[in-house]
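Entry 14. Ran structure prediction on the chain below.
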Amino acid sequence: MPQPLAYRMRPQRIEDVVGQQHLVGPGKIIARMVQAKMLSSMILYGPPGTGKTSIASAIAGSTKYAFRKLNAATDSKKDLQVVAEEAKMSGTVILLLDEIHRLDKTKQDFLLPHLENGRIILIGATTENPYMSINPAIRSRTQIFEVKPLTADDIKTAIERALTDTTNGLGDTDIKLESAAETFLTTATNGDLRSALNGLELAAKSTNPDANGTINLTLPIIEECVQKKAFSHDKDGDAHYDVISAFQKSIRGSDTDAALHYLARLVTAGDLPSIARRLTVIAYEDIGLANPPACARVVESVTAAQRLGFPEARIPLADAVIELCLSPKSNSGMMAIDAAMADIAKGHYGDIPAHLKDAHYKGAAGLGHGVGYAYPHNFKNDWVKQQYLPDKIKDAQYYVPKQNGKFETALGQQYDRLRSAQHQNKH
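Output, structure tokens:
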């Protein structure tokens, strides 16, 4: 049985990797490692189908090292021993270890010395957050890189490459992919290239050619083959982003029914990643300090939805949307950090006051570091007046409180009291 299209189209050179240019683009960290042949073990984490295996395959192809692939959950210590023996006999082996977050202690203890001596270059792949799920012993011996969902343009590039590649792709077949179908294929799979290529291959193999021998792939055919409907997509690819935009603006504008309508479009399209990301952004961007408990509940709802999957995921998502719509709103947190970053971009920062500098080393006092620092907990109400900002911007104010909820109203009152005390008799 022939290998799937997604497997055949895996890149053999780092230059052929689709997307992930923050890692493999010219001058970026993994490209530099490959160019210098100074590879170190790494963990790649991100959603399925975004190129973790492709990057590992391309690294091996570009460096000409042997490439082996195992699964931490299903392959045994004996399988690791076979790879280690190969590395001992023939030199460096690149080992892609899928689901590395499920590596047990026995396998981990076996791997560690081989990582230390460099015989095995480990590339761990996981959809889990490695800072939470990977054992510290492995984590400390690897570099951690986030692999991001592919953009529609990335997937379009890969699809067009697959349609023209006569060696590994579908280039030997006369296929006409309708424009609307291509656009849908690039957006409906939510950055999952494997799903896009699987859908394309299924459509091509299951569609009869016309009288001229051409396989015409239309929007309904692609919809059927990826099992999603184009409710939130149009022929230009803009409607998907229009729905996301309308979704956020409806919540921001406190229109519950409109927000539920746009949520329903996204649920119908099966777009859980976009919903999860957008709801989390909305919670902290638009509700923020006006109602922090709502922000925390949104994170819980999104986590529950991701664990449940559709169709049940729609329930916690709907609860979260309704609460966000009816919650008081505030964007003061976002505005505050943006104002602080804008100041830095303009060169407004200055030297950290000497009394705030690190004093936990010999000779610090001789440099004046930490000298004169007043420890707030030694004073009444655990507060003492002293300067924290650099001299150059000592009077800067970034946070401007709003009064759109009890929580931020109270925060604002405390902020005003402390700021007034801090700057009292300054001028």
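The first strand starts at residue 42 and ends at 45. Will compare against last week's run tomorrow.
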